[in-house]
């Protein structure tokens, strides 16, 4: 799958941003296998960009194309299909069902479009050190435990492109490395592109492309 962005700018940013940014106002193209690190200090629009690419918000000028199709012209059905099979996301806002356990949250997601067997949830939880918390209610888990669940949740579906907005913000260095390792392992299985927006350059992410937002 090919993702193209052309002359993008949030409605609430000054045109001036186009001259200072390597993303806003530029023409870029991403496709399977690309590992893209977007370095974005606070306020440069990391969350805005991630939301635009997933069609959660449309307050921008410019164009976003998936395989040549303009995201703004996609129907609800097109978007559902895109998110189900092609684009997965790790948001800062975790959106877990609070009254469900971590395992229930993950199993609900897995069953929507099974890519892995249920055992893989346990394996991934073990790899990230939260297997002993799988039966705890999401609302009783720490941010770090919830964030690791959200990472696993994103890896349970098929995808060509994985969007990540500060995916390891609640994890220490050792757990961040494990999480990025698992994300890369799953991305390689699918030959997917990973678009990783972070405050600073992540030394443990083997970026093939680096942009400053
Ligand atoms: N809907 C909106 N209307 C007006 N301004 C907005 C809107 N959404 C975001 N902004 C502003 O745009 C800027 C970028 O916001 P955004 O959340 O995309 O940044 P960010 O780089 O992800 O920041 P952080 O690292 O602090 O999460 C901020 O100054 C924010 O206040």
From TrEMBL:
Pfam families: ABC_tran. GO terms for molecular function: ATP binding; ATP hydrolysis activity; transmembrane transporter activity. One of its GO terms (cellular component) is plasma membrane. InterPro entries: ABC_transporter-like_ATP-bd, ABC_transpr_LolD-like, P-loop_NTPase. Residues 3-210 form the ABC transporter domain. Belongs to the ABC transporter superfamily. This is ABC transporter.
């Amino acid at each position: 799958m090919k993702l193209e962005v052309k002359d993008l700018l949030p409605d609430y940013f000054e045109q001036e941003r186009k001259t200072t940014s390597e993303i806003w106002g530029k023409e870029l193209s991403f496709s399977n296998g690309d590992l893209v690190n977007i370095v974005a200090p606070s306020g440069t629009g990391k969350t805005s960009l991630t939301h635009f690419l997933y069609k959660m918000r449309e307050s921008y000028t410019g164009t976003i194309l998936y395989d040549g199709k303009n995201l703004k012209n996609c129907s609800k059905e097109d978007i559902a299909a895109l998110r189900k099979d092609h684009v997965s996301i790790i948001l800062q806002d975790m959106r877990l069902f609070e009254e469900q356990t971590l395992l229930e949250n993950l199993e609900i997601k897995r069953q929507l479009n099974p890519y892995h067997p249920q055992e893989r949830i346990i394996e991934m939880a073990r790899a990230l050190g939260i297997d002993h918390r799988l039966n705890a209610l999401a609302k009783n888990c720490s941010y770090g435990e919830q964030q690791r669940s959200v990472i696993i949740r994103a890896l349970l579906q098929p995808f060509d492109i994985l969007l990540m907005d500060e995916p390891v913000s609640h994890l220490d260095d050792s757990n961040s490395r494990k999480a990025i390792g698992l994300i890369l392992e799953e991305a390689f299985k699918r030959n997917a592109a990973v678009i990783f927006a972070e405050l600073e350059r992540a030394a443990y992410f083997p970026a093939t492309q680096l942009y400053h937002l």
